[in-house]
Amino acid sequence: MRRQTLTIALVAALCASTVHAAPQKHKSKPAPPSSAAAAQAVPSAEDKARIQALLQYQRDLVTVSALRGDAVHLLGAALLARPLPDQKPEFTFHRLAERAAAAPAAGPGVTWLRLADCEGNNCPNAEMLKELQTQAADNAAMWMLVMDEAAQKNDDKGVRDALSKAAAAKTYDDYYGIGLQGVASVVGTLPPLPATMQGTQAGDPKTALGVELLIAFGVANQHPRPSLKPLLDLCNADRASKDDALKSDCLKTAHALEWGSSPIGRAVGLHIHGELDPSAKASTDNDARNLAWQIQNYAEIGYAALTDNRRAAPLLDAARSGGTELSLVLSTLRTNGVAVEAPQGWQPQTEAAPASSAGH
Description:
Oligomer: single chain
Helix content: 55-70%
Number of domains: 2
Low-confidence stretches: 1-39, 351-360
Distance between the termini: 25 Å
Largest sheet: none
Strand content: under 5%
Radius of gyration: 20 Å
Number of helices: 18
Number of strands: 0
Shape: globular
């Protein structure tokens, strides 16, 4: 069964955990696509028409939501506008994000999303990163961004200083839930254009709720996140065994990630915890197995929701209610009657390196 590019994008969005504010310099060069894969990537005329309808629907949502004055809807409009070309100045990501930041109840989550208000090598937005250090000094995720910047400049002292500050932080929140809440609140304010549901194939959304789900999670997938590779490089077992202060800061930071907002953050935290504290490894390995189970089932529910309104409606409602990415995963599993703990003996089909976070 062939899944369309847009459908694949949603499934990726539902289990994506490595999207960054800018292309990472840690990535290795990807292998070129095969000729068969390239041929499948070429959209048909029907696909093109549907994509254009989806883009027009997105433009219409931006135009209508730009009339709002609250931070949630303005932020959602900004995120919807970000990938759209040739927007009028008042409907651009930059302008709408500015308005969201000036709206009542705007906080560090809006500032975080403005990290993406940048271009090329100037990403993430340096002014927003500086502002976050004032707004969210107690958030380890923000210090991971600072660590990324230092690592890219080969500033070892800056990397170590960022780790110390992350270790002293009380939370880990990459504010994905705020961005998703904004976009999910905006989609559905207008009915999708009929053409967005025409020319579909198996697995493509054929209802208004399916289209809303596709756009909400597809746009939210562009959320800026820190690369956690510098943290993994610094907190490896060999280094930590020779430096008690480093080991202590790594374990404190790992604890924040384990109990933070992000599945990928939790995976990294569990990995570091298990590597540096052998007495906890059996427990962290079990928790990591449960996390893999949760993400696999969450992705399957999300894909099924594209064509099943009974699943799409509660997933959209949960997204609109706010919360964190990890809380959304767990609530979705419970809503669909899926246990949050993996069955005895279950193992992931493939065992990937834990949270290299070095790609999209």
